[in-house]
Each structure stands twice: as structure tokens, then as C-alpha cells.
User: Fold these one by one.
Assistant:
Number 1:
Amino acid sequence: MKIYLWWFFSILLIFSQVVGCQRSGAGITVAGSTSVEPFAGLLAEEYMLHHPPSHIYVQGGGSTAGIEAVRSHAAHIGMSSRSLMGTEKSLHAVIIAKDAIAIIVHPKNRLEGLSLVRVREVFSGKIRNWKELGGHDHPIILVTREEGSGTREAFQKLVMGEEEISLEALVQDSNGAIRQVVAGDPHAVGYISLGLVNEKVKALKISGAEPSVKSIESGRYHLVRPFLFVFNSEPTGEAKAFLDFVMSPEAQRLLSKEGLVSILSKSSGG
Amino acid sequence: MILEIKEKIIERTLLLVAFSSISILALIAFFIFGEGLPFIWKIGPIDFLFGKRWVPSQHEFGILPMIVGSFWVTLGALLLGIPLGLACAIFLCEWTPRSAAMVLRPAIQLLAAIPSVIYGFWGLVVLIPLVRNYLGGPGLSILSGSVILGFMILPTIISISEDSLRALPPSYKAGALALGATHWQTIWRVLIPAARSGVVASIILGMGRALGETMAMIMILGNAVKMPSSFLDSARTLTTNIGIEMGYASGDHRHALFATGVILFFIVMILNSSAIVLSRRRVD
């Protein structure tokens, strides 16, 4: 008797999962870059508020993982914080916003700004002590992102050029983890997405330009990269509806309030 | 008759289930080796194992810093875990009053049940500022990682050593005491040597756990890809190398991570088989 009951429950369990799967099929999945994820999550919430029955699942995993997921149809939309490379170029990409990279230090750090060249020298390991930059006498603790990260790639392109990021640098696997380390260590310096800078860390001026939406729009702050939504082909249905929402002035306003540079302001401000 | 058929069915079903779990192991091994081995061949086993630079974007894949990192972190964990674990096992076997054992044993089991991310978080918030403020360096270091790992492998070392101590025939202890040895002499000169195979097995299994730990180490070690020069340096282990980079890796980079997995697979396989061999060898 007990055994039959057990069978009954296991079958019930299997079926309940199948039913659950079908229900989740109603929404769309957005996966990829951990830099884009928080903003996409915000937009998804806003979108779901206006379109009650639909559901948008936002997952992290990284730019490459997101692009892979779109290719294998595991996700409807991929988020990428880097431009598409090689064979990925066959996919359909849309710039949804631009993001700046901020160089962050501990709030207690006396330094207010650095020139781009100095930042490069710090991260390539040529300048090793804060003293050389007019700060306190302590070795600089470098914090960088892992190989393959969209933020690292953008930083490499925008700041480092041909120089290599020092292998001595600590490596953290998300914007949040870098912020955590820098917030806890008065001697650390790292780089994260400008939208994720909070009061626990200080974003440095780069070559005199304040890291703010305003100076980005006026073209004075140069460390800027695109945020992409990636599709297999021209989006349709729910994915199209979500993309349209993301490109709407209302959503773009929301993004610029969160520290991103809206694509609308780019077209107007040049 | 019907009962017999039923028995047969159940027997076959269980056999199938048992084999399916093994076949998953085979599948994993097949997949990792399939993805990783060709890559190791391609760049050369010597360059891969002894290369000092890991810069995937420039096509440099040397995992020696990770092998060294894994080695130091594991060694540090054992330096902390073995004395503590062994002392705890001896205490539980020989001295603990029943009431204390009733608290101690569940507490040790709880230690094993805490998810590693909690250990990592605790280390990040409590241990790392301590190391940074009092010893210097970034705090994210081999030392911090070793301390956390030392605690994480305690349950393995304690429970297996305790079991092997308890499995000894009571005549060993009675004989030693009857010959006039003190309690400590009995433990140190008779019981521990007699239970040696079990104790060594527990240490090797703890080592396997230390080598395999990923989440807590990603949070604590700092993951710098360089040869560590002191215990206060940041390091990267074989597992964290996979864990931290897999999200964004593609192409050769991805294969290189699988190849790291192949090396890890070999190391863990050697450790586990030696633990099995050692624990099988009974003391006469």
C-alpha cells in the first residue's frame, strides 16, 4: 500500500514539473552580461507592470554565455556588454544604451582624479605606490575583471590599448565583487560600470572629466561602451514588444536615471 | 510466483538506477576529456602544465600558477585541519563525557552542512579585513583561504578518524593500560598508530575536499594569476580558474578551462584511489 502511495506521489511530482515548464514557456528569457543584468531586470519589472500576463526572466551568466544561449535558442534575448566578435556577427544586435566605465577607489583615498595615461600606468603595474600619484605611501592593490568579461575587454580597449593589465592584479568575477573589494580596502583601485557606483566607493575623474552622464553626453568622458540586446534574427512577438519598450523614451529615461547613457540623448547631443 | 516476478523487477530496476549514476560519471569524464585533451595536445602538455602565464586573450595558457596556488592553499588547510581535526577526534573518542559529545557531534555535522558560499562570505566580511589590517597585503590571500578551508575539511577529518579509532579492538587499549602506560601514552603510541590507515585516509579525503572547493575560494583568494610568493599573496587554484572564467569563455579559452578540469580530474582521482587503498589495508 505504502509503495503505491509513493508511486503516486512521484508521478504527481513529475507531472507538476511538466505543468510548471509549460507555464514558464509563456514568458521570454533574457540572459547574458552581468553588467547589463541589473538594468534589464529593472526594465523587465517595469514592462511586466504594464503588460500583466507576460513574464520576462532575466538571468546573468556573462556576455558570451548570453550570446551562446541565444544561438542555441535557450534564451530569447542575449545581453552583451561587448561588441560581437567573429561568427557572432551573424546575429542581430541592437544597442539599447551606452555605459561608462568608472575607475573607483576607496572614499578615504585622497586622490580625486587621474589622467588616462596614469590609469594605464597603474593598471599595467608601472606605478606601484599611491605615493607616486600624490596619494598616501602604500602599494596599490589592483582589482580587475576576469578574462573574457565584457567590462574587462572594454577597459582594455578604452584605457590599456596595447598594454597588458598586470598579472599581479586581483581578479573578481563581477562588478559587485570589485565594488565590494574596493569598498573594503583603502589601497585598492578597480573599474566597474558607472551605473553601479554607489556611496561606498569613489569614482575618479579621468583627465579632468567628471564621470557623469552629463560629461559623457558632452563627449568629455571617453570610457564608454555599448550595451547590446542580441537576437537570432529580427525579433518577433514578445521579444519584439520588450525591445520596443526598452527603446521607448520612458524606458530610456529610466536607464539614464540609473546612470546609463540613453541612446536618445546620444542622437540629440551628438 | 507473482512475488518472485516482483522481486526480479525490483532487482532489475535497482540495478538500472545504480548503473545510471555510474554512467553519469562516465559521461562527465568522457565529456571533459573529449573537450580538454585535444587542447592539451594542441598546445603541448609541457607548455600547458609548466607555463607560467595565463593570458587567454593573447593565447597563452600556462596553468603552473594555478597548480602552485592549489598546492599552497591545500597545504595551508592541512596544516590547520590535521592538528585540529585529530585532536577533536581523539577527544571525542577518549575523553568526552556523554553530555559534551551530544553537543559536539551535531555541531561538527553542522560544520559539514554549512554551504561553502557562507564560509566564503564569512571570510570576506570577517577574516579578510583582519588579515589586511594586522598582517598587510590585500587580505584576499592564501592565508585567508587556508584558514577557511582548514575549517571546511574538519568534519571529514574528524568523522573518519573517529570512526577508525572506534573500530579498533578494545583489547588494544586494555592491553596498553594494563602494561602501565598512561592514557596519553596509550593514545599516542598505540591507538593512533593502529588506526593510522583510517587517519591517513581521512586526511587524503580532506585534501580532496580542499582541492575541489570553488565557491568560497573564488570569494577569498583574490584570484590573481601569478606565482604566489608569500602566504599573504593572492592566488588562483585550478577550480577557481574554471569557476571564475567559464561565464565568458568561448573557443580555445573554453577548451583550456576543460583542460584545467582534466588535470584536476587526474589529481583528485589519484588522491581518492590512494585513500581507498589505504583505508582497505587493515592493521593486523
Number 2:
Amino acid sequence: MAGGPAVRDLLDEALAGVAARPTRLVLTTLGTVLGIAALVGTLGLGQTAGGQITQRFDLAAATRVVVQPDDKGGQEGEAATQLPWDAPERISRLNGVDAAGTFSALDVGDDLVRSVAGLDGQKDGHALQVLAGSAGLFDAVRATLRTGRLFDAGHDARADRVVVLGKNAANRLGINRVDSQPAVFIGDQAYTVIGILDSVTGRAELLDAVIMPNGTAKVDYDLAAPDALEIRTQVGAAQLIAGQAPVAIDPNNPSALKVDAPPKQGGVRTGVESDLNALFLLLGAVALLVGGLGIANVTLLSVLERISEIGLRRALGAARRHVAAQFLVESVIVGFLGGLLGTAVGVLLTVGVSWGRDWTPILDNRLAVGAPLLGAFIGLVAGTYPAWKASAIEPITALRGT
Amino acid sequence: MTAMAVAIPAPVVEMIGVRRFFPGPPEVQAIREVDLVIGQGEYLSIVGPSGSGKSTLLHLLGLLDNPTDGVYRLDGVDTSSLRERRRAVLRGQRIGFVFQSFHLLDHRTVLENVALSMVYVGVPRKERLARARVALERVGLAHRMEFAPTTLSGGERQRVAIARALVAEPSLLLADEPTGNLDTANAEAILEVFDELHHEGMTLAVITHDDHVSQRAQRQVRIVDGTLQW
């Protein structure tokens, strides 16, 4: 006859031992459930929150770099730093730049913007912002057209009196079509409207403004230099371009330029996670410790209760190690069940909070798999002493009495 | 195993000069000097008052305890030199126990209780259940297989315990006060089961303080103060 029980039989015996007392099983797992739930919930919510923060840096924000002269740097008497007109061309040569264009606000004094000159019905006009840009600006801010077209480098070079309207500005001026070549007046000067913008990213003020080519602004408003350079980079290149841009634009004095770039990924995330989470992880660890002690306690109690069963099993041919294995496996099962339940609670917690806040729940798969295993490990550690205790029971002692 | 054991059919139990002392103080000489041979198919009763050392003798016979001195051969195998692990296997394969207090697992069905005795000797699961059913039919409990032991009468419980002891096909059935917790009618039923087993060739050793139980056996041995009296 073959010696020794199969592993499956030992598992069966352990399972039956655990299942024999369901109420006790539930109470025993409680500590582990709480601990694992706290750990999974904390880590899950941390990951979820971290995901939300990175989500807020959407594509547009993550690829936008803005270069401006550093106003604070210019000392008295020193010539203020200016962006060169050819900054877009210089920047475009860098690897990783998709588009670049200048952006400037024009000082139009008290001039109002009107769609029709001199008519009584429109005597007031609108105090709209007037901006100037290079042809590349629209591409850099991902502008989409509602109607018409954008101005190009030719308009810029010839200083043509054409403008593009933001959609809100067009609404206020009562212009919604450009095929009849409507004109707007800034002060007394007429400009042909060639297009209306529908949307932009980053520079929302473009939608409320009248935008003309740089060349035109130079002639009509003596624009000396661009206010800012808008750069659209490839995904992931923003940090690199932010470092290279000042040198490319002004090699002699790069520090006089101020660069706005999206913050490094992860920097914010860790900042938000660490403070709150340390506390909850600590709580979870304490709960796990208590849970482990609970399992050890109840398993030990169960060993004392089942002395006669242990004796019987020994009489039926179980060796010490079989008895030890049974109690160890029982305690691992309890820990694993606790871990499983705790993981479920933790995941539900994460999903619930995410749902309440309209977040996308994010949970590392390794966490969902690892947490029940952690529970099993706690059961293993907790069961070691009771299992040893059980294996040391002499069958004679165990079978005596009633 | 010796060559002699192969040549001549060895007795099931062979105890030579066995002694068991429990170290004191004071030292207790539970078994002073016992020579006991139980042949194949014998039905032996060991009778004695409490404190006479009969429980210790049962433990020694059942390999639950080690003699301080002497030789104990079970089926020709010298057990005194065996390690604990090997003794456990031998115990599981060669000895069936019937206890006074039944020792059934309350949370398992009658069938599972009987099948349990084959777990540690490595009988495959399917075979275990089939053999457990046969054993339960043999003791007249075919209709109780899926019951919980707690719902059975004392006599029925003891019959479950007998079925459990028989199912692993042991060389020796060791019963410790098997009727101690039973009324007269149930006790009689159990003794009838023992008689049947004896006729079928099973080797039985029944330990009791009850002369009535003892007299049912083919051979009686009395134990007094740790020594056997014939």
C-alpha cells in the first residue's frame, strides 16, 4: 500500500476543518479583511487619484510650451529683452517641435471695433481685444475654423489688412459669414475678415479677439516685438523643448527668457499620495497585525478544542507533520479568505469613491492578485505556532477522556 | 524484517519482556513485565480494574506509546526501532481502534468519518468512499451514511467507529472499553458484531473492566498491577 495521504486529501481535510465552524470563520477573518481592505483601498485610491492628476494634464496642456521675455530680469537702463521676430523659425528647427507661432496683444488705445463704419445704428462699437500673430500661431494652438480661412505668411509679409475673428468676437460683431468679405473697423481703419475661429487650446482669449498678421500690426500699430512664443511639441517632448528653447531663440542671453512648460509627470502625483496614504497604510498594517494575531489566537483555541480529533487522526496513521500541515493549511485558508474578502472590499471602496467623484478607478492588477496572497501569508505566519503546538500533542493524552 | 518472519506465519502481536515506566518522581511502573502473543484470528480480552495498567498496555499495543524496555513485534515487524513517521504508517495500516467515547468527527457525515481512516494510508478517494460504504453495510448502517454522527444513538455511533476501524483492513482490532458508554442492549449488539468479526477471522483485542464483556472472548487475560495473569 502506498504510504502517506495525497496533498489533495490534506487540503480537503483542512477545508472541512475550516468549513465546520462558519461563524467562527467569519469572525476570524474580520481582522484580515479590514487590514487588507484598508491597504487595497488606500493604494487603489492613491493610484486612482494619481491617474486623475495626470489626466488633467491633457494632450494640449502636456505638449504646450510658452516662451516669454522675463520681465523681472530687465534692470533699469538696460534694454528690455525682446523676442526676435524669427523665433518661430528658430524653434521649428528643433527636433520635437510640431508648430510654433508668436502671440502679441496690441495697444489700440480707445479705438473700438465695429463691423460697419459710420452708421448711426452702430455708433458704439465693441471694445474688443486686438491681437497679432504669426501664421504659425494657429497651428500651435490647434485652432479650428468655423468658416473662411486663416492668414498665412504672405499676408504677413505684405502687411495685408486682413483679420481672423474669434467666434465670440464674431458673434458680438454680428458676423457669421465671410464669403461676402465683410470688413471690421478698428478705429477708422478697415480690415477684411477672412475667417472665424471655432476653437483653440491654451490661448482662450483668441476666441474673444480680433487677430491680425504680425506684418500688419507692425505697420499699423508699430509692434516692436512679439509678446510670447507659443510652441506645440510632440508628446513627451515638452520638457526637452522647454530646456532648449531659450538657447535656440536667444543664444547670447538665454536666461532672459521665461519658459512655461507642463510639470514633470509624477512629481505632483507623489506629492498628493504620500501624505494621506502613509496614515492609511499604517492603519492597514496595524489592522493586519491584529488580524494575524486573531487568526493565531483562534487557531490555537481550535487546536485545544480539537485535541481528541488530533488524537484520532494520529491513531488513524497521521504523522506529526500531517497534523501540523492540516492546521497550517487551515490557517492559510482563513488568511487567504480574509485577503480575498478584504481585496473585494478595497476594490469596491475604490470604485465607489471614484464613482462618487466621477473619477476613473485605476487599480494595479498586481495589487488585486497580491493582496489575497498577502492574506494567505499572514495566515501562514499566524498558523505556525498553533500548528507546531498541534503536532506536539501526544495521541495518548488526546484520546483519554470523553 | 527477519527471514524467519517470512518462513513461518508470525503471530499478529508478539510482546517479549515489555516494560513501561513513567519517570517520576515518583516513578510509575505502569507495565512491569509483559509477555503476550496474539495469534492470527484470535479474540482476546484483557480485563482489569482501573489503574491496573490496561490503558498503557492498549497504547503500547496500538503503537501510540513506546515501551521502556522489551520487544514488540507487530506482524513480525520489530516496532521498537522504528521512527515516529514509520510507526504512524504502521499504525494506520495494521491497527484499527475502537474507543469508549467513539471519537467521531461531529461535523462530518458518517460516511466521511469511516472514509477518514484511509486518508493517511494513501487509499485513493474513490476507493475510500466505496470501501466505506461496504464497511457501513457490514455493521448494518447502510441507511445512516449521510447522517451526522450527533444524530445517531450511542450504539450506532460505536458501530460507525467499528466500521471505521475495519475499513482499512487492519491486522489487529483494538477496542478500549467499547461498551463503556452504552446501555445493555446496545452493548450486546456491539459484542455480536465482534463475534461475527471473530468468525470472519479478524484478530481482536478488547480491553475492558467488565467481566461480562471479557467472557465473550475466546481467551481472557487479566492484568493486575502491570503484570498479566493467565
Number 3:
Amino acid sequence: MTSYVVRRLVSLVPVLLWITILSFGIIHLAPGKPTDLAMQFNPRVSLEARERLTRLYGLDQPLHRQYLDWLHRVIRLDFGRSFLDDRPVIEKILERLPVTVMINLLSLGLVLVIAIPLGVLAAVRPHSLFDRATTVVVFLGYSMPSFWLALLLMAAFSVTLRWFPVSGLLSLAFAHVEFWDLIQHPLTHLAAWQDVAWHLVLPVTVTAFVSLAGLSRYTRSSMIEVLKQDYIRTARAKGLSERHVLFKHGLRNGLLPILTILGLSLPDLIGGSVISETIFSVPGMGRLFYEAVMARDYPVVMALVTIGSIFTMLGNFLADLAYAYADPRIRLSRETSP
Amino acid sequence: MNKLARWGLLVITALAVVAVAAPWLSPHDPLAVNLPEALLPPSPRHWLGTDQLGRDVLSRLIWGSRISLSIGFIAVGVAVSVGTVVGALAGYFGGWFDSVLMRLVDTLLSIPTIFLLLAIIAVDPAERLLVFTTYPVIGPFTTLLFQWIDPRLVVLMAAIGLMSWMGVARLIRAEVLSLKTREFVLAAYCLGASQWRIITKHILPNAIGPVLVSATLGVGGAILTESVLSYLGLGVQPPTPSWGNILNEGRVALGVAWWLTLSPGLCILVTVLAFNLAGEGIRERLLR
């Protein structure tokens, strides 16, 4: 098992290198220069000052040189400084990371808790009324633009009914509280946490509803296959309770393909943050990315693409490990094979 | 084919008719600004109301269907072409060639799509496409093309397509791997057929089923992607109407004019739903 883990982790490194080369290339093809933005605030800046700035950021170097410099620093976790406000990129990201991770974990949890039972129950009686009803709901969720759903929910629940706040993460009353403080001292900030929870209801609901569809569909089709197997008939013949048959014997086998899907859906989850965070003005990584792209803040964009991809790859890796853990046949065959 | 899938195909056909017949169907000029009639609620004169500039929403939606559907179909066309070529080559030739191409696929799948799309579109490569109009031979053709469609639209379609070919490549590769060991392929090989002929005449026609399914689902996905990009201000640029940017322009007036947000969203929802149901129907049909 250990050698398998190590081998998999090592094989992630070239992929990561490719990702950084690819995104570095794309972002540096942009016609606009980051120094343009600095110039806009002060149009009378002299040519020498502009050149000094270009040199300072290393933008006068050839592209491969810039990339190697960047890589050299990143290995030591130094992502450089933001072109916009000159703060270290890693600091900007770290203050936004927990928000995005929290929202995504919450919606992932919600999706798992809802989608898997829905899929299993639909698979027990395919083409029944329940199955058809869930299929319709699930397909609707799959087919609508998530930001449209967000707008409608906002209009209904925040503007008209005033149940939930329209946007943001904290009310004005808690504007002075830092999010890291909330995490480090949850007990002293109970009221603030309550406020955060209030603000998160709509974003989490939207994120979860949209990704519910895929997972419950896959659970359904995978469970339909599993429930046809002989060992399910055996389990029923032994007189096991239906609950036991479905969730112990059925689901454990049916979950295998779902793990892979879950790993593959991570990039969408991270990407989805861009949309939900912009629409609900949640100060997370997604919105940071959008702002950075718009301002051509290369260091921030590169850092976010790299970190987003690392998360994705780790997710896939964990899915593979869980796969091996859940299915002894895979674990054993990998251990015995050279 | 089940009932839902038939319904989906019917909707798709109807939409195609609407898109083609847009000049005759739309009651008003979709671009005509008429400020005195701004933000009117739905009425017999303007069935779906008017927007901030007094333009008729129904007419804009009808003309927008052209743009949105073309984006869907062309982006999928790009994705299927690239995916088929990459998947077929990787599957047929195997070895290190296969490994390199599939690592590329893995790499692209590991980057959140929206990140790459945003980066590509924010780079705004449209200006650079204009270079092609100065080249000999292809110059006049590209000039004609860009008179007909905005280069930025070309970039948008290509970008969406280039972000979604990886799934098709994997599907085709898997099909090719299993097909290339079948007897009829070996027979063709023994009869001295060229590799090109074996791939295009014997293998690919047999691998078309799963591709058809993922292409159908892909059209819906591309339309959704366009709407998301429009929401971020990077989709089809106004005043050209697309469902995405009508929705985005309506967003600002959500509090006072709900019809501006509701109708384009419903158009997207119904269309994408139709493509998804049709795709599922085709999949079930193939499995049987």
C-alpha cells in the first residue's frame, strides 16, 4: 500500500508541472501588461518609472526565464507579491482559503447526504413514481445556470421575504472580525458564527443543488446494476433485512464508481466557487481569482490555478485511495503485482 | 426512445426552427432602442416586456437563440473533432504516443475549467485573429468570415470547445482500444487496408454511439458555459443578444423588472433540459 501511495504521489508531479507551464503561457500571452494598470492611476508617470517597474517585476526577462524564476520561488512556497496591492500572494490567498474550503465542504456534505439516499431509493424501484419525480428534479438542477437559480432565490428569500441576507459573509455589525479569528476562537465568536451561518444558507444551497444531479444519477445507475447481482439475491435469501441488503451489501459495491465521479467533480466544485462567490459577494478564492484575472494580477492568478489544481489532484488521489480501501480486490492485486 | 427524450427532440427541433426563422418570427427589432418604453412589464404589445433600453425582450430572445444555439453546436463540433482525432490516434497507435496524449488529457482535466476559460478569454486573443485576414490565400476567406461573425465570438466558441474535448478523447480511445482487436479490423489489415482506411472506415463508424451521447449532452453544457461567462461579463458582447447576456443585463434590474431575469433563464433551462433528456434517451437506446 505504501509503495502504491508514494508512486501515485510522484506521478502527480509531472502533471502539476504541465499545468503550471500551460497556465503560465496562457496568462502571459495577454496583450495588456500589469504595469498598464499602475499607469492608469497616474498617467504622467515617466517612461523610466515604467521601465523600472517592469524590471522590478522581471517582466523584461524572456518568458522561460520568468517561468523558471517563478517555479524556483514556488518550490519554497513563495508565490511573489500581488501587482495590485503589493501584499504577499500567499497571505491574500490564506485569508480567503478557509471561506472557500468551508463552503465547498458544507455543500459536498449536503450533496452526499441527499444524493446517495435519493439514488439508492430511486434504484430500488426503477421507473416508479418516486424515481421519475427525483429524475425530473435532478435534471432540472442539472440544466439550469447556477447563477440564475441564485438570483431567483435571492429575489425571493432575501429581497421579498427578507429571510436571509442578500450577500457577503458577515453583517456590518461584525465587520471588524477577521475570519481567521473566527476559526481560531470559535467559542468567543458564537454570535459571529451564527451570522456567518445565516449568510451561508443560500450559497451552500445553490452550490449543492447544482451538483446534486450528477451524483444521484450515478448512484442510481450504479445501484441498479449492483442490485441485479447474485449476491444481493443471496443476501435476501438469507433473510437479511432490506435495509441491511441495500446499504451494507448493495451500497458498498455501488459506491465504487461514485468515488471516482466524486474525485472528478472536484474541479467543478472549485470552479463553481468563482460564480457563487461573485454573485453572493463572498470573499473567497473564487472571487479573488475573478478579480485577479480582470486586473491581470499574474502572481495571484498563477498561484490560484496551481493551488486549485493541487486540490483537484489530491481529491482524485484520495478518491483512488478510498477506492482501493473499499474494494479489497484492487488493494490486493496492486500489492502483489510488481 | 422514451417519452421524455422524444419531448426533448421536439423542443430541439422547434428551437432550431425559431433560430432559422428569427427574422420572420420576431415582432420587433431586437436592437432598436426605445427609451420611452423602457422596463415595461409583459403586455399584448410586448409579450415578455422590455428591457432598460426599451428593447423588446421576446425579439431579443428569438434572435438570441441563434447565437446561443450556434455556440452550443459549434463548440461541441470543435470538442468532438479534437477529441476524436486525439482519442483515435492515442488508442490506435498506443505506446508512448498514447501516454503523452493521455497525460495531456489528465492535465487539462485537473485544472478547473472555468479558471482556464476565464484566463483564455480575459487574454482576449480576438485582435490577434485579425492577423489571418492579411495572409495570402486564406486572407479573403477570413475577412469574409469576420464580417459575418465577430472574431470575439469565434474565440468564445473555440475556447468553450477546446475546454471540453477531453471526455470525448477518453471515450473514443476506449472504444478504439477494444475495436482494434476485433476480427473485422484484423481482416481489413490482412487485406492490406491502409491505417488511415482502417481508422476512418472500420473503427470510427463503430465508435460513434457514445460520442453522439456525449455530444448531445455537450451542447447543453456549452450553452450553460456561455451563460456563465456572460454573467462574468466575458461572454457574447452586447448589443448582440445571447440568452446569457440578456440574463446578465436583466440581473441589474432584478428588483424592479423580474421578467428580464425570468424569461432568458427559462429559455436556457428548457433548452439545456431538452438536450440532456435527448442525450439520456439516446444512451438508453444504445445500451439496449
Number 4:
Amino acid sequence: MTETGNSLLEIVAMLSLGMLSLALFFALIRLAKGPSLPDRVMALDLMGSIVVGMIAVYCIVTGNAEFLDTGIVLALIGFLSTVAFAKFIEKGLSR
Amino acid sequence: MTEILAALLLFTGSCFTLLAAFGIVRLPDLFTRLHAATKASTLGVGCLMAAVAIHFGSLETTTRAVATTIFLLLTAPVGAHLLARAAYWMGVKFWEKTEIDEMRSHWEVYSKQAREDS
């Protein structure tokens, strides 16, 4: 591992963290102004995926791979919340 | 070599994720936005996970990265399908240039069946 290669990876990791933050901001715009409830649920689902990606980049930045477990749990919770919201929209609270 | 490959995969993955978020803002209605939100974000997060697996290079990290990617690949289409069906049921408006609505003929049969079941 040379010095230049290491700093290249750090620069790209910081750049991609910035791009993912911008993506999170775009999803927040849709979450705020989405005209219907499924729009907002979709934006929340996308924010979950983006945060899983940010956790992956953060693993590379800190050199600690333990954070990937958090990503798995977050993906699971995001999927469950999407399914629950879809059922709620379609059938309401009764069933 | 692995550093350059990991950096390239990181950049590609964040580009795809940013494109997904850009599409979710710019596209005209919910059913077109679901394309961007599901497909591009899955590919982007998959690229980021591949970068993590290449950077660490150990068996346990690679297993976790592959497990996360497979989980996202399995769940993202299911979630998008459920959401699109719920939105169709709710009566979300199409984009005005959408011409084909293949769901309508099937939908009447489905909703009649659902009424009989309940």
C-alpha cells in the first residue's frame, strides 16, 4: 500500500460521503413536498438505502468493518417499514 | 491495485445513489419515481458494498457485504411492488403523458375478489 494510493482512497471516500449527503438532501425534499403518502414512504425507503451506503463508506473511512452489521439491520428495518406502510395504505388499520 | 478498484467502485456507487435521489426529485409522477428509487439505489449500494468487500478483503467482511447486497436485491422490488399497488388502490394520478393502463382490467377482478373475501 503506497502513500498516494491511500490518500486517493481517502479523498474519494470523502467525496462520496458528500455526494451521499446531497442525495439524502434530495430525498428529504421529496419527503417534505411529496403530494401523496406513497411518495413520502418511497422517499423514506430511499433514505434508508442511502444511509446503508453511507455506513459502507464510513467503514472504509474508519477502517473498522464492524459497522456493516448496523447496515444489515437498517436495511431490514427499512424493508419492514415499507411493507407496513403499504399494507396500511391499502387496507387501513382494520386488518 | 485494490485501492484504485475500491475508489472506482466507491465513486460509481455514490454516482448511482445520487442519480436515484435526483430522479426522485425530478421525475413527474410516483410510478416513474419508483424506477429511480428502486433500481438505481440498489445498484449504487451494491457498488458501495463491493468496494467495502474489496478494500477489507477478509472472508467475514465479504460475507456481510454480499449478504447486505442480496438482501437489498431481494427486498427492493418487493417493497416497490407493494407501494405501487397501494398507490394504485389509493388513486394516485398518472403523469398526463402515460397512455397505457394495463392494470385496470385486472384491477376490477381483484377488487371484486377482495370484496367477496372480506
